[in-house]
Design goal:
It is a single chain. The chain is mainly alpha-helical and about 100 residues long. The chain has one domain (about 20-35, about 45-95). Helices cover about 30% and strands about 0% of the residues. The chain has helices at about 20-25, 45-50, 55-65, 90-95. It is globular. The two termini are about 20 Å apart.
Length: about 100
């Protein structure tokens, strides 16, 4: 039997913690909380294709001013979640 242990501390500045962000939010994906402008709307599929995974897209989105600002064009619906990233698995794991 493996006993649970505390998670290790993250060394130095490794960028935004998407797990902390997931646990700090409680709204469902697709619920708009942040205003997004219609000018300069980018192709979200092309923007998201630059990332190997939704987790990496979310981390970069947060590092670049998200969720308040979407400089990368990865959150057109304004829910604060980039490239179909879903916080619910992290929330469920905490329960």
């Amino acid at each position: 039997t493996v006993q649970p242990q505390d998670l290790p501390q993250r060394p130095g500045d490794t960028g935004p913690n998407i797990v902390e962000f997931a646990l700090a939010t409680n709204h469902a994906p697709g619920v708009q909380l942040y205003r997004r402008g219609g000018l300069g709307v980018r192709d979200v599929n092309a923007a998201c294709a630059k990332f190997a995974s939704p987790d990496l897209a979310q981390q970069e989105f947060l590092a670049r001013g998200g969720p308040d600002r979407d400089r990368l064009g990865v959150d057109p619906d304004g829910d604060g979640f980039a490239c179909s990233w879903d916080p619910r698995p992290f929330r469920t794991a905490l329960q």
